[in-house]
Amino acid sequence: MNDRKFCFIICTNSKLYFDECINYIKKLIVPDGYEVEVLEVSNASCMTGGYNEGMAGTDAKYKIYMHQDVFIVYRYFLQAILDIFGDNDDIGMIGMVGTEKMAPDGVMWHGYRRGNLIRECEKKHYDFTQYQYTIQDGYWNVDAIDGLMMITSKDISWREDLFDGWDFYDVSQSFEMKRNGYQVVVPKQKMGWCLHDDGIINLNNYNKYRLKCLEEYKEYFEQ
User: Fold this and answer.
1) What's residue 219's pLDDT?
2) What is the DSSP letter of 180?
3) Can you tell me the distance from the alpha carbon of 49 to that of 77, in angstroms, rounded to the nearest whole number?
4) Euclidean distance between CA atoms 137 and 68, whole angstroms
5) pLDDT (tens digit, 9 = 90+) per residue, 34-87?
6) Rounded to an integer, what distance in angstroms lies between the CA atom of residue 7 and that of residue 104?
7) Residues 6+ apart with CB under 8 A from 170
8) pTM of this prediction?
9) Selection from 196, 198, 183, 187 nearest residue 76 by Cα
10) Which of 17, 64, 165, 169 gives a 20 to 30 Å CA spacing to 157?
């Protein structure tokens, strides 16, 4: 395991989105002594399968699993990751948006959400020149994070055996982290660090995987 390496793992089916995503990654300020790699997983059969492939394909300690339509606008992003993981070794995963308490129906967006995010439709253009995250800004401990970006310092296999599609892999991985004794957190971002150009979302199999999630992780819904 290379403790001074970041790897961006991106499942992609669009060269246009992927190239734009990489353009933003190239503009990030890399902390001294660290290196960055990008691992493209093309045409994965499911998100968990693609992410397991990516996890096996790098020796980086810090893995940033992200959608191809997420663009990181906060240039000090990598240093912020180091600061948060360095604050508490029990933190296993960081997200940009999450919920402190999962809703009983398993739908993250039905619970109170923490974090920040720039949506493309909002047309916000933040000036980051006077802002840099410090650990004193803090973070929230959450039950689960949204899958647009999931940053890990601990390697835990994604549940490809259960979530073999494109839904609930994020909630699943959040609970797998907790099952292994790690915390999942969302930084208190004064301004959103990422822009998400998500467009139309296919929810044809959403309920199928929601029910699987409720059954597999029932201990987190019975509290």
Assistant:
1) 87
2) T
3) 26
4) 28
5) 999 999 999 888 999 999 999 999 999 999 999 999 999 999 999 999 999 999
6) 34
7) 95, 108, 144, 145, 146, 147, 150
8) 0.94
9) 187
10) 17
